[in-house]
Every structure is written in C-alpha cells, then in structure tokens.
Predict the structure.
Amino acid sequence: MSEPTPLDKAEAAAREAENNTAVVQLATMAMELAKLASQQQAQTPVQTCQHDHHKQRRSAGEWLGISCAVCVGGVGIAFASLALAILGGVAAIVVLVLRDMWRDMKKGR
C-alpha cells in the first residue's frame, strides 16, 4: 500500500473534525438540558393563597337596606322622567305660542 497523499490526509482530518464537532455539540446540549431541568425543579415553590375563601353571607338587615335603596332610586328616576316629560310639554306649548305671536306680528295685527 502506498502512503496517503496530503489530500487524503486532509480529507481524513476534516471527517474526524466533523465527527468531533457533532459529539461536542451533543454533549453541550445534554449539559444545558440537565441544567434547565435542575433549575425548573428548584423554581417550583408551593403557592399558597393569602385571602379567605369563605365569605360571610349578607344579613337580613343588609338585604333590607339594599332593597330600600333600590326602591328609593326607582322612585327618584320615575320623578325625574316625569319632570322631563312636563318640561318637554311646556317647552312645546311655549314654542307654539311664540310662533303664533310671530305670525300675528308679521301680518300686522
């Protein structure tokens, strides 16, 4: 057998470097995955609630007060809508009277 040429030596060195690079990359990736796994296990503390899940129910007096407030509010809204209706009617009458007066003034009466 003949001695390998410099071209053959270079090809063999390139193949070996290529294989070594893949092995080193795999080893590095495995190390990184192991680090991430250990960090995730360390970072999972148990979460506890700081508030009370058992709320107190409203008493009868509170419900009575709420219902009275709703009734008073409803009556107030009814009076306000009635006042707006009366105001609209009065405004319409005033406009009609003023229009009639304007027409009379134009005719010279």
